[in-house]
């Protein structure tokens, strides 16, 4: 399929939206800031995104698609469900293999937290946030169920909730205090939570 100028423009605006939200937070995400980052006019941004809510929803879709693509790539049949779950969650807190590059940006967490903050006063954003969280929970519960087929659906969901709480707590805390909640701490916390989630039923 041949790329068009509109495709290139949309990709550039997507990258700019992500960068501005990750760097400047929800208060800094404006049409003007995205235009400046993308090197275009605000009119061009308005052509793609009607308002700030549209920018935020687009950033949330990017976050979801990045996570889904990564999880699908991990779950390719070459790993067991426990390994897939661990790598998926480590990636969710920016602490996976190959991510110790001397920086600790955790851009996904910053985008997620910015979207969550905006959703507190916007029911449309709040609903999209819940949808994303439910998809994350569903992925975790399914992997737990495959690793421990003796568990019922409800127990898998409860264990997935605990994992989600760990991941979201780590992302929130590390965004505000990255030195205290560095990759080593996040990796250790995720590994501990997974050991609990995958413990056989007594």
TrEMBL record:
Q: Where do the HTH tetR-type domain residues begin and end?
A: 7-67
Q: Which domain of life is it from?
A: Bacteria
Fetch the PROSITE patterns from UniProt: HTH_TETR_2
Q: Which SUPFAM superfamilies match?
A: Homeodomain-like, Tetracyclin repressor-like, C-terminal domain
Residue ranges flagged as DNA-binding region? 30-49
Q: Which GO terms describe its molecular function?
A: DNA-binding transcription factor activity; transcription cis-regulatory region binding
* Keywords per UniProt: DNA-binding, Repressor, Transcription, Transcription regulation
Write the protein's name: TetR family transcriptional regulator
Organism equals Mycetocola reblochoni
């Amino acid at each position: 399929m041949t790329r068009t100028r509109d495709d290139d423009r949309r990709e550039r605006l997507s990258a700019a939206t992500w960068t501005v939200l990750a760097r400047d937070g929800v208060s800094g995400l404006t049409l003007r800031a995205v235009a400046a980052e993308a090197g275009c006019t605000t009119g061009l941004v308005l052509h793609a995104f009607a308002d700030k809510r549209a920018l935020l929803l687009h950033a949330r879709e990017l976050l979801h698609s990045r996570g889904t693509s990564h999880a699908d790539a991990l779950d390719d049949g070459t790993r067991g469900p426990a390994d897939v779950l661990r790598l998926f969650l480590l990636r969710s807190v920016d602490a996976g293999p190959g991510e110790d590059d001397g920086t600790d940006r955790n851009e996904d967490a910053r985008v997620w937290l910015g979207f969550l903050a905006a959703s507190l006063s916007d029911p449309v954003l709040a609903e999209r946030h819940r949808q994303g969280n439910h998809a994350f929970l569903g992925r975790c519960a399914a992997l737990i169920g495959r690793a421990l087929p003796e568990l019922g659906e409800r127990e898998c969901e409860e264990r997935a909730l605990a994992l989600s709480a760990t991941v979201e707590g780590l992302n929130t805390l590390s965004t505000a205090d990255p030195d205290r909640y560095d990759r080593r701490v996040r990796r250790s916390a995720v590994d501990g939570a997974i050991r609990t989630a995958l413990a056989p039923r007594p």
